[in-house]
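Researcher: We are triaging several targets before committing to wet-lab work. For this one, the compound of interest is flavin-adenine dinucleotide. I'm pasting the protein sequence and the ligand SMILES. What I need is the predicted three-dimensional arrangement of the protein with the ligand bound, expressed as C-alpha cells, so it can go straight into our comparison scripts without reformatting.
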Amino acid sequence: MKYDVVIVGCGPAGASLGYLLLKNNIKVAIIDKKKFPREKLCGGLFTYKSKLLYEEIFEKEFTSYINKTNNVNFFKKDNLILNLKTKIPFYLVSRKEFDFDMYKEYINKGGICFTESTISKIDTENNFIYLSSGKK
Ligand SMILES: Cc1cc2nc3c(=O)[nH]c(=O)nc-3n(C[C@H](O)[C@H](O)[C@H](O)COP(=O)(O)OP(=O)(O)OC[C@H]3O[C@@H](n4cnc5c(N)ncnc54)[C@H](O)[C@@H]3O)c2cc1C
C-alpha cells in the first residue's frame, strides 16, 4: 500500500493530524507501538481551548470527559492557599478513554493504523518502511 504521509504515534497529536489529513483526501497511515485502548500516564486536565480545537477538528461536540469544573484550588502542601471560580470550565479526561476516542474517530474516517508496531528500517531510496511486525 502507498501512503502520502506516515505518522509515528497515534496519541492526540498523531490521531488528530491523521484525521485532518484524511479530511483533505491525503492518504495516511499511523504506526503505534501499542494496541488501543492503551494506558497513558497523564493528569488528564483538558483546557477549554483544547475542547474548541477538538470540536473544530472532529466536527462533533466534545463529550469524552469524566468531569468538568469551574472551581480551581491551589495548595501549598496540605494548605489551601487560593480558590478561584473560573469563567471557562476545565475538563478532566481519562487518557485511556480519550485517546481511544480519537483513535476510533481516525479509524472510522477510514484511517489505517498499524498497532503493536515500531519502525525497524526505512529504505529512503525506494520509499519503503519496514515494521517490527514484518510488514513492509
Ligand atoms: C505525568 C504526566 C502528566 C501529564 N498531565 C497532563 C495534563 O494534565 N494535561 C495535559 O494537557 N497534558 C498532560 N501531560 C502531557 C500530555 O500527556 C502530552 O502533552 C500528550 O500526551 C502529548 O500527545 P502526543 O500525541 O504528542 O503524544 P503521546 O500521547 O505520548 O502519544 C505518543 C504515541 O506514540 C506511540 N509511540 C511512541 N514511540 C513510538 C515508536 N518508537 N514507535 C511507534 N509508536 C510509538 C506511543 O505508544 C503513543 O501512543 C502530562 C504528561 C505526563 C508525563
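Researcher: Any quick observations?
Model: The chain has one domain: 5-131.
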